[in-house]
Amino acid sequence: MKITYYGHSCFSVLAKGKQILFDPYITENTLAKNVNVDEIKADYIFISHAHFDHINDAVRIAKNTGAKVLGNFEIYNWLLKNGIENAHPINPGGKYEFDFGTVKCVVAQHSSSFFDGSYGGIASGFVLTTKDGNFYYSGDTALTLDMKLILKWTQPDFAVFPIGDGLTMGVEEAIEAAKMVGVNKVLGVHYDTFGFIVLDHQKAEEAFEKAGINLYLPKIGSTIEL
C-alpha cells in the first residue's frame, strides 16, 4: 500500500483507488511547513479523537475535497456544526463497509477534548481491511491488552503506532503492541512535533531492529510503500 506522511499523526493511504486521510494536523505544525494543505487529496478522512493536533485541518480539507469525514459521535456533531454535511459517525465497536473495504473502530486509551476544552468523545483507533492490504492505526493510545483483539477482525500487514512517549506509547510499548497484533512493519507517528515528544531516532530504530520489527520514519511529505 502507498502511504504519504504529512507529519505528526497525519498520513494518507491509497486503497482501491481511494485516498484515505487520517488525523489532519498540518498548518500549525512547523515541521510540515513545506506541505501545502490545499493540495492534499482525500476521499475519506478519519479522525481518531478531538485533540487539536489530530483535527486541526479536517474541516478545511473536507471542504476542499468533498471527502467523507468519520469520527466518534461527538466529532460527527462538531463536523455538522462546522458545515461538513458529508460526515459519518463511527464509535468503538462499530464497523462499516465502504467502497474501498471495511473499517472497524476500536478503543484507544487516551483523553479527548475539543479546542475549547469541551468533551470530545472517546478516543479510538481504526482497523482497515481492503483488497490492497490491511492495517491497524491505533490512534493516540497507551499499550492495552485490547490490542490482542485486533487479530479477530483482520490480519494486519502493518500497523501505525504513536512512539513519541509522554502522551502516548513510547518505543518499548509500540514494540509490544506490534507483537500483539502480529506485524513486523510499523509506521511510527506522533513524535518530534513538540518538545515533550522528541524522539531519539537512532535508539528507536535500534530497539525495533533488535525486536525483529521494521520501523518506518518517513520524511514529511514523502510517500513510501508497505
UniProtKB/TrEMBL annotation:
<dbReference type="InterPro" id="IPR050114">
    <property type="entry name" value="UPF0173_UPF0282_UlaG_hydrolase"/>
</dbReference>
<feature type="domain" description="Metallo-beta-lactamase">
    <location>
        <begin position="7"/>
        <end position="190"/>
    </location>
</feature>
<dbReference type="InterPro" id="IPR036866">
    <property type="entry name" value="RibonucZ/Hydroxyglut_hydro"/>
</dbReference>
<dbReference type="InterPro" id="IPR001279">
    <property type="entry name" value="Metallo-B-lactamas"/>
</dbReference>
<dbReference type="Pfam" id="PF13483">
    <property type="entry name" value="Lactamase_B_3"/>
</dbReference>
<protein>
    <submittedName>
        <fullName>L-ascorbate metabolism protein UlaG (Beta-lactamase superfamily)</fullName>
    </submittedName>
</protein>
